[in-house]
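Hey,
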Amino acid sequence: MDLASPEGESELNKPESELNSIKQELASQSDRYLRLAADFDNYRKRTNQESGRRAIAQKEEFIHELLPVLDNLERASSSSSPGSCEQLVEGVQMTVQQLNQLLRRHGIEREESQGRPFDPNRHEAVAVRKDASQPDSVVLETFERGYRRGNDVFRPAKVVVNEHAPAAGSAMR
């Protein structure tokens, strides 16, 4: 085969043509990759911004629900007329009721602890007391009420737990 002939020249140009085609395909794929990476980065930024806006909106909604409770506390604290002590107590009780309703709307429930067995998953023992009239390891008093969301502890209760003294002679063995 003679490379000087027209057939030989087309044979030589064929690899160069394939190389140019591959280079163009590589440039095209590289461009697609860069565009995809930029699109993903923009998506991530938009998602983060949207998540932040949603969190701010939820906080604002909660604060709007809390403001009437604050208004009632301010009204109760500013009453100074005769007999205002009963009105103050009534106002505070109504405000506590209002706060509990607000918490329930947000899925937070009060946890009753007094008289129940001590549970380290739901209670934080802040003190121990001995009361022979009560069972051992029962909650005698609640210093700070616990709250839950569904079955999950939102805040453990701070409690006083009953601890019976060991029976006489049991420590001697």
